Amino acid sequence: MSQNAEHKSANYNLDELTQALNSGTFIQTRRMLNSLPRTEVAHMIESSPPKTRAVLWQLINSDIEGEILPHLSDEVQSQILSQMDTNEVVAAIEGLEPDDLADILQQLPNQVIREVLDSMDHQDRQRIEQVMSYPEDTAGGLMNTDVITVRPTITLDVVARYLRRHDELPEMTDNLYVVSRRDEFIGLLPLRKLLVSDPSITVREVMNTDVTPIHADVDDSEVAQLFERHDLISAPVVNTEGQLLGRITIDDVLDVIREDADHSLMSMAGLGEDEDTFSPFSKAAPRRAIWLGINLLTAFAASAVINLFQGTIDKVVALAVLMPIVASMGGVAGTQTLTVVIRGMAMGHIGSNNSGWLINRELLVGFANGLCWALVVAVVAMLWFNDTTIGAIIAAAMLINLVTAALAGAVLPLLLKKMNIDPALAGSVALTTVTDVVGFLSFLGLATLAYA
Amino acid sequence: MSQNAEHKSANYNLDELTQALNSGTFIQTRRMLNSLPRTEVAHMIESSPPKTRAVLWQLINSDIEGEILPHLSDEVQSQILSQMDTNEVVAAIEGLEPDDLADILQQLPNQVIREVLDSMDHQDRQRIEQVMSYPEDTAGGLMNTDVITVRPTITLDVVARYLRRHDELPEMTDNLYVVSRRDEFIGLLPLRKLLVSDPSITVREVMNTDVTPIHADVDDSEVAQLFERHDLISAPVVNTEGQLLGRITIDDVLDVIREDADHSLMSMAGLGEDEDTFSPFSKAAPRRAIWLGINLLTAFAASAVINLFQGTIDKVVALAVLMPIVASMGGVAGTQTLTVVIRGMAMGHIGSNNSGWLINRELLVGFANGLCWALVVAVVAMLWFNDTTIGAIIAAAMLINLVTAALAGAVLPLLLKKMNIDPALAGSVALTTVTDVVGFLSFLGLATLAYA
């Protein structure tokens, strides 16, 4: 799916680099590294274990360090920043865009932030302080201040002459921003309209006004969805007074989209969405240990249920052989439902008007598949242990557990969300607890009744 | 994370719509529906159970159906198309962009495709046939042919006059494409450069030539990574002769990025990445049943292992109570490793040069956390059953299984990939089989030795 030439080339470069590092040809390596595209270097750093990472960073010229930092994930960024002294940090991040700079500053100790801000000129400091006044995961935290603004009353000819006074327009400039005298956002002047229109007409006559600017407080996931729904390349950001603060561009939104999409996958395994693949043992182990500890509690809960039925197992030891089947099938079926619902929620598909239908369908699917595989398991169990009763018991337990799994898989994430708990993180633990407990309880409980 | 105002508004609209439908005010509903942004309507359709979906589609004016179809997922598209007759389809898809049209045509029976193509004029047919000659998941399948080309020898002033002859430039036009007399791609002329440059100089003097065009055969995931790495809005697509065929724009790439990111999450639960949240029972049930069947086989494998130790369980029934803990903790630890590795692979982080380091770290983490929780479990088991031996046994089994889980979680996806099997799909089943079998085998095996 995702192995491809780019990756191969990155890994090829990395192979070459590893060789070069091992053979000690540092000069050559340094030259190669500094001539690669910055995003490629960032990818190589992300793809390296900690020690190689440190060596790579040493080999990168200090004047391009700042261009590489924004392309690294937060975790890798902070790892690298922690190994630099304040002067190096100040030198590296000079000239970065306000949103990138704000992201990096937020990872540094307060004293370093102070020093960096003091080293800037007044206007730059004001800009960065404005971006930093919004949380990282809001429109304000995502925005840049590199907007080109025009007044509605001037002609396109004047706009064209004004633009020609620039050496270069900022990257990803698809629109000029039309603002009032008081900096209130009025509309957009797309370059692709400017270029085809009669130069003698005014901005007001061609500008787009059916654009809703994004408020600086809006959540970054919402910004991402706006970009996706409306095929945006950039979007204006305003304050509560409607004044233009800056713009958000699609390159920064892509990171949000990827992190949001990774969130469900990683959270379901108790991991963070920006988990560093090559995080050192000392960081990886404690994080994972906590997740294992939580799961251990649920495993003990299941054991406590089994413990209630020691007598029955003692009588019919075949029950111990078969009982994991019921629990495991419940876990698998429940995880399918849970995954569908969590992804549906993440995509904004599920609301109060359709969750009922969804729960019903899941119950039906659970019942139908429960019935289907219950019969298969029953036949196998009967033949295996030459015991009709055990077949009937496992079939009934399987059906009960698969219906329960469907219900839990569909309802738990909705409930957790209402309680403001991340369903992707808590859902899978909660689900396994339910399917284990119900699986063992129904199977061993029915057996106790049958073999009493 | 992802619940937000946009969603709320979509669901709010959907609530209103449901009410309107129920109260039978169709005219009002129809008016509202047809005035909403197309992407919003598509989102409402995706968020509806099958029956509501059919009603919604009936209420949509036929002249905007074509604008909504491209925003639907493949599965929902084909569901809706299957309910339309050929004339309706032909009317709906008139005027769509070639890439969207090709996607939709590929879902139709051959005879309908023929009819649609016959209904087009020569040039349009040629364009669409060109896009359809490439698989949907390649650069050729993603591209559109709405490029504006210029020659390197003309002046920017001539370019400006040429552009003014257009009523409108295509959406997402950030660059003009510079081609030779034989349509070979030479370079890009960014609008943001055109606007700031002296009108009297030639295209050749300002164009970007350090752009590598994308070959039409390139995989769509690779295209997505190129866009992400190089912050592209659009990119040229060429054939093997280097001739410009069309361009790919970021809006189409976003869908690829989202699907790729969803792939791991969905596949690990045996689901497709474009699974329709509201697929009808008749579609959802059989798909899930297959996955359950595969998992049933692995559950039977675990039971077969337990079956070997019936005698030991008969002697010490506490073993039956504790044995699921060992298997379950192995499954959880292994899933964590598996998730980290599968995501690392999807992001192109893992190659031959760093997989060794990764496996080592995972083994270390597995050993450390195995040791940590083995001690906890041992103490609990000893106190619970007042039996030192059982504590020692479960601790040893836990350690063995967590190290095995780490090894399996790291190595299985790498192996599966080498065998060209999707690691996200097959990895979790293979992993659970290993952790269940090794969990029961080590725990019950050690117990058999101890209690012999």
Automatic annotation (TrEMBL), chains A, B:
Query: Where on the tree of life does the source sit, at the highest rank?
Result: Bacteria
Bilayer topology term: Multi-pass membrane protein
Q: Which keywords appear in this protein's UniProt record, sorted alphabetically?
A: CBS domain, Cell membrane, Magnesium, Membrane, Metal-binding, Transmembrane, Transmembrane helix, Transport
Location, primary (coarse class): membrane
Q: Can you give the residue ranges of the CBS domain?
A: 207-265
The record's InterPro entries line, in alphabetical order, gives: CBS_dom, CBS_dom_sf, Mg_transptr_MgtE_intracell_dom, MgtE_N_sf, MgtE_transporter, SLC41_membr_dom, SLC41_membr_dom_sf
Q: Which PROSITE patterns does the record associate with it? A: CBS
Q: Which Pfam families match?
A: CBS (PF00571), MgtE (PF01769), MgtE_N (PF03448)
CDD domains membership: CBS_pair_Mg_transporter
GO cellular component annotations of the record: plasma membrane
Keyword Lipoprotein part of the UniProt annotation: no
Give the protein's recorded name: Magnesium transporter MgtE
**Which species is listed as the source?**
Dasania phycosphaerae
Gene symbol here is mgtE
